[in-house]
């Protein structure tokens, strides 16, 4: 009788093929850290990992290969170093780079027995999908958000690929909603982000913040709307001065900026009375009037400081302070460097302060309940809540699929879906 | 009782826990921060649970294990650095466990869990038992049940794993549901329809609920021989695929039953080095267990033995992730807990939550 030889939990043949093959892990973040740990403990010996990102303090609640002292360093590099501490015999190559760099061509991908994605964006996923199809290498795709996670195997000729199913597109809002008639906090937040770019960042013609005279609602006659649009293009100089140039001409005076954005422009909107027939009209703010009100001092209650909603007077102050700080930063950059860059989910206090203040002032003007910095950061920064356990489970499932592929059991591969709240782990055969 | 002394979250905690506070809320984070947990057993599954709880931000985690590091165990677990052979497993895991989150008080205890007096367990809000004998689990669970301490048990045997929860007679928690809001409708019969002001779609409401659990003793004492149990064997779970094997939901329970019996008989788990002898014993136990239940031994096929040796790292990750999240839910009193078992089959890649115990 042939004795079954086990190496740990695995049959010897499988254990042997693990130790000789090469695998690529794309991403060393939430899923990536868990995945690298699993891959190494399961017995893979030749691993390459790539990630363009550096470590941030908000990663530390789940990207367990990193510590506070590593903040600012390369994720791929630190992940490799930490893994080597518990498995020094693993042969790991780390790349602090983007997988979309042309150096990682089809030949590069062909070196691997399989590729495992641990990405957080669609562009990179599409790219890796195509490379793996071109190289004809199996790809294990995965994703997590909050309590939910998913794992899928993609193999040319056997399964559908990542791009086979249409994915929902990012939501965008019509210009007139942002510029004239916001009805939800997100409209005000988008407006505030546009404003940031217009004043301090890269100006974009699609990110106008001033009242839109070509709003289709202003007339029912399409010809009329077109006439207005042409008129505003051909109009006199004043309307064509860019927001940034205008701001510069005032020396980025916070009071002048405030009065233009939250008083004059709003008064202009009020003249477009057709817009306000069925809607509550906006209320212009006056800087001097709000100076008279006191704003809340310090932090009250047991919530996070960021979860406080400051009130109009508070946001007036915040607006003023953040404009000054951002102007200072812009000037500090010197000649030629004309732009600050919006980094939504990094800890960039002045930019986030600015967006929080501007968005809230606009919400107030349009009679919406104001939001805390904490909530605005979620929406402005496209922050996805994340925990360690969902990533741990998904990364476990990824390796189990990898083992099936290596055993030649591709037909047994499954799409796994996991909901951490109820522990339901669905898996469907491919 | 969860300590409520310190209800302010520091800047450091807010920054580090940001992404999870955005998911389960500040109240939940504070409760976690007031909880002390005991974790018994630092093999593969234990290390995963330790990591998950330390990252979640509990007040303290005591890691208890009397075993020494062997060559095999240093391969199986990511907290023990290499070259720590001969050291105590909990002790060897301590440094790297603490590095995961300096804000948690992590301790190592090298005693045998069997020798701990009752009072020892009472200092914790939750107790997690891995690698323990069935008798010990039943004893500790009974004690904790009487003192309103949450109990969790779990093990990984090769490709298979399970976890069990006992949150006491009455576990109170909240569930967050979106607020149902009717949009304002206005007649608009002249000109383009004006955009309607929507009420904030992010508003939610907290609903209070209660769940009741039974002890491990009662959960394992299901009388399979009676007709009612037998008839429910025909019920197949909804989670299987079109190609699934027609196993009943009770099959997952047989795995831990058989493996726990092995553990009691041999004082250890099946070891690859004694594969032949252990495999034979496993099959024997399977036959005995199933016969005592009046069931066919076909329910656990012949080759089941080759999939239950050692601890598979990815299976530890899955079971450890589920177990970790159950502990978090229980301590934070948020979201519905599993009642009362979770079984994972790493071969199939499927997980099932099921209830065993008195109705």
Automatic annotation (TrEMBL), chain A:
Q: What keyword terms does UniProt attach to this protein?
A: ATP-binding, Metal-binding, Nucleotide-binding, Nucleus, Transferase, Ubl conjugation pathway, Zinc
The residues responsible for catalysis, as annotated, are: 176
- Region Disordered, annotated ranges: 205-236
This protein's pathway reads: Protein modification; protein sumoylation
Domain named THIF-type NAD/FAD binding fold is located at 10-409
Cellular compartment(s): Nucleus
Q: Does the UniProt entry include the keyword Cell cycle?
A: no
Q: Which GO terms describe its molecular function?
A: ATP binding; metal ion binding; SUMO activating enzyme activity; transferase activity
GO terms under cellular component = cytoplasm; SUMO activating enzyme complex
- PROSITE patterns annotated for this entry? UBIQUITIN_ACTIVAT_2
GO terms of biological process kind: protein sumoylation
Under the heading InterPro entries, the entry gives: ThiF/MoeB/HesA, ThiF_NAD_FAD-bd, Ub-E1_IAD_1, Ub_act_enz_dom_a_sf, Ubiquitin-activating_enz, UBQ-activ_enz_E1_Cys_AS
Superkingdom of origin: Eukaryota
Gene3D superfamilies given in the database record: Ubiquitin activating enzymes (Uba3). Chain: B, domain 2, Ubiquitin-activating enzyme E1, inactive adenylation domain, subdomain 1
Query: What SUPFAM superfamilies does the record tag this protein with?
Result: Activating enzymes of the ubiquitin-like proteins
What family, per the record?
Answer: Belongs to the ubiquitin-activating E1 family.
Q: Specify the protein name.
A: THIF-type NAD/FAD binding fold domain-containing protein
From TrEMBL, chain B:
Q: Would you tell me the Gene Ontology cellular component terms?
A: cytoplasm; SUMO activating enzyme complex
- Per the UniProt record, one Pfam family is ThiF
Indicate where this protein is primarily found.
nucleus
Q: Does the keyword Nucleus apply?
A: yes
Every copy of the THIF-type NAD/FAD binding fold domain together lies at 17-350
**What are the recorded Gene Ontology BP terms?**
protein sumoylation
Q: What ranges does the record give for the region Disordered, renumbered to this chain? A: 179-198
Q: Which UniProt keywords apply?
A: Ligase, Nucleus, Ubl conjugation pathway
Top-rank taxon: Eukaryota
- Subcellular location, in the record's words? Nucleus
Under Gene Ontology molecular function, one entry of this record is: SUMO activating enzyme activity
Q: Which pathway does the UniProt entry assign to this protein?
A: Protein modification; protein sumoylation
Subunit comment: Heterodimer of SAE1 and UBA2/SAE2. The heterodimer corresponds to the two domains that are encoded on a single polypeptide chain in ubiquitin-activating enzyme E1. Interacts with UBE2I.
Belongs to which family?
Belongs to the ubiquitin-activating E1 family.
Protein name (database record): SUMO-activating enzyme subunit 1
From which source organism is this entry? Oncorhynchus mykiss (Rainbow trout)
């Amino acid at each position: 009788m042939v004795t079954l030889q086990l190496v740990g939990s695995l049959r010897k043949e499988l254990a042997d093929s693990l130790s000789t093959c090469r695998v690529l892990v794309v991403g060393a973040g939430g899923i990536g850290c868990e995945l690298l740990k699993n891959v190494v403990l399961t017995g893979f010996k030749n691993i390459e990992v790539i990630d363009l990102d550096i470590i941030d303090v908000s990663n530390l609640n789940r990207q367990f290969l990193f510590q506070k002292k590593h903040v600012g360093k390369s994720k791929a590099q630190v992940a490799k170093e930490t893994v080597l501490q518990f498995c020094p015999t693993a042969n790991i190559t780390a790349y602090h780079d983007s997988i979309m760099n042309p150096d990682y061509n089809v030949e590069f991908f062909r070196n691997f027995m399989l590729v495992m994605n641990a990405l957080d964006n669609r562009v990179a996923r599409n790219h890796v999908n195509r490379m793996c199809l071109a190289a004809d290498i199996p790809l294990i795709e995965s994703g997590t958000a909050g309590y939910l996670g998913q794992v899928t195997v993609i193999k040319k000729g056997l399964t559908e690929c990542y791009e086979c199913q249409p994915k929902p597109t990012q939501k965008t809002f019509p210009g007139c909603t942002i510029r004239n008639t916001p009805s939800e906090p997100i409209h005000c937040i988008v407006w505030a982000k546009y404003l940031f770019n217009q004043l301090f960042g890269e100006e974009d013609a699609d990110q106008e913040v001033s009242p839109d005279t070509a709003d289709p609602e202003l007339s029912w006659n399409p010809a009329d709307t077109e006439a207005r649009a042409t008129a505003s293009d051909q109009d006199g100089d004043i309307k064509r001065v860019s927001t940034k140039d205008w701001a510069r001409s005032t020396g980025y005076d916070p009071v002048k900026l405030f009065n233009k954005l939250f008083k004059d422009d709003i008064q202009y909107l009020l003249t477009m009375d057709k817009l306000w027939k069925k809607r509550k009209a906006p209320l212009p703010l006056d800087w001097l009037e709000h100076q008279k009100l006191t704003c809340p001092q310090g932090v009250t209650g047991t919530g996070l400081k960021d979860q406080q909603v400051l009130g109009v007077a508070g946001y007036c102050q915040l607006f003023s302070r953040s404009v000054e700080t951002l102007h200072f930063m812009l000037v500090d950059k010197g000649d030629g460097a004309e732009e600050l860059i919006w980094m939504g989910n990094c800890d960039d206090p002045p930019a986030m302060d600015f967006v929080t203040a501007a968005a809230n002032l606009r919400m107030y003007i349009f009679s919406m309940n104001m939001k805390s910095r904490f909530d605005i950061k979620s929406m402005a920064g496209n922050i996805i809540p994340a925990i360690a356990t969902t990533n741990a489970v998904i990364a476990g499932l990824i390796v189990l699929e990898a083992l099936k592929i290596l055993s030649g059991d591709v037909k047994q591969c499954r799409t796994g879906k996991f909901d951490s709240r109820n522990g339901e782990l669905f898996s469907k055969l491919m | 009782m969860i300590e409520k002394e310190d209800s302010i979250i520091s800047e450091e905690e807010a920054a580090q826990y940001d992404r999870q506070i955005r998911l389960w809320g500040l109240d939940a984070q504070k409760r976690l921060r007031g909880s002390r947990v005991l974790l018994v057993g630092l093999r593969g599954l234990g290390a995963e649970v330790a990591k998950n709880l330390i990252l979640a931000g509990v007040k303290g985690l005591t890691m208890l294990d009397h075993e020494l590091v062997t060559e095999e165990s240093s391969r199986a677990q990511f907290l023990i650095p290499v070259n720590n052979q001969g050291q105590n497993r909990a002790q060897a895991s301590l440094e790297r466990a603490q590095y995961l989150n300096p804000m948690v008080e992590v301790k190592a205890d090298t005693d045998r869990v069997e020798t701990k007096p009752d009072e020892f367990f009472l200092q914790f809000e939750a107790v997690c038992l891995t690698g323990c004998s069935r008798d010990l689990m039943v004893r500790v669970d009974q004690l904790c049940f009487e003192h309103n301490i949450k109990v969790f048990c779990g093990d990984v045997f090769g490709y298979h794993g399970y976890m069990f929860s006992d949150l006491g007679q009455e576990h109170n928690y909240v569930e967050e549901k979106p607020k149902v809001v009717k949009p304002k409708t206005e007649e608009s019969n002249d000109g383009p329809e004006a955009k309607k002001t929507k009420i904030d779609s992010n508003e939610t409401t907290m609903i209070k609920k209660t769940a009741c659990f039974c002890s491990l003793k009662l959960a394992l004492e299901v009388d399979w021989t009676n007709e009612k149990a037998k008839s429910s064997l025909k019920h197949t779970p909804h989670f299987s695929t079109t190609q699934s094997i027609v196993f009943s939901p009770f099959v997952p329970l047989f795995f831990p039953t058989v493996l726990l019996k092995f553990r009691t008989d041999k004082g250890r788990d099946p070891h690859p080095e004694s594969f032949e002898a252990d495999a034979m014993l496993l099959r024997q136990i399977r036959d005995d267990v199933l016969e005592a239940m009046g069931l066919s031994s076909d329910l656990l096929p012949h080759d089941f033995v080759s999939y239950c040796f050692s601890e598979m790292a990815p299976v530890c990750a899955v079971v450890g992730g589920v177990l970790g999240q159950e502990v978090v839910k229980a301590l934070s009193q948020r979201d519905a807990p599993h009642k009362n078992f979770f079984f994972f089959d790493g071969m199939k890649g499927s997980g099932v939550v099921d209830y065993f115990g008195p109705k």
